[in-house]
Amino acid sequence: MKNIARGKTADFEDFIITRRINILQSMDRFSGTKYSLLDVGCGNGGSLIKLSGLFAACHGIDVDENNLKLLQSKIKDLNLNSVSCSQENATREFCKGRQFDRIVSFEVLEHLDDDRVAAINIFKKLRAGGKIAISVPNKWWVFETHGAYLPVLPWNRVPFFSWLPRGLHDKFAKARIYRKKNIRQILHTAGFENIRLQYITAPMDVIKWRPLRRFLRKTLFRKDTTLIPFLATSIMASADKPDTE
After folding, report:
1. Is pTM, for the whole model, over 0.85?
2. Which comes out higher in pLDDT, residue 8 or 206?
């Protein structure tokens, strides 16, 4: 896929972060103060910092130096001794000599040069018996999550653009988009087992008029997950690394 754009990290107050954490906490034995956590593509640490109280130690990696500076400043301000970060690329070797009990990666794979290599690298950094949670954009959401390089049209989030056949979509899209079977296959090939998939309900963060946003969150978009693909911006995939010990 050509012209993959770097993603915009979620802001600390974005409701999507709350949704992701709610889903993680609903997973059996995912969080716990005896576990170490790695956040691949941590951005400015919006998720990492909120998750830090649920784990013994947390580390974030990202390729963007400016994101990491913001995260380091936040770590210092909040005196979070259990949180650290480093500038690294998920499609290469990272966190040399270290493995983690739990790994998360939110809306990152779609921006990488090779999402399959990244999944394999994540598998290597996970301890035997460990668990992952990865979210990727959902093809069946009404709007193209990351936009597209479209000729003539000044607005790049054209409705139903993501529903186009993959070859045509990928020609103009700024990032990959996934169906459940796509991310399942990537994780299976990497070596993960017990793969579980959920649709993350659209958080409505893009709606700036608060009365409308509150109304939508209390009605169609009330729950953190949905069985209706058209109401979901993302897919949350969780999986295990076989316990070979």
Report:
1. yes
2. 206
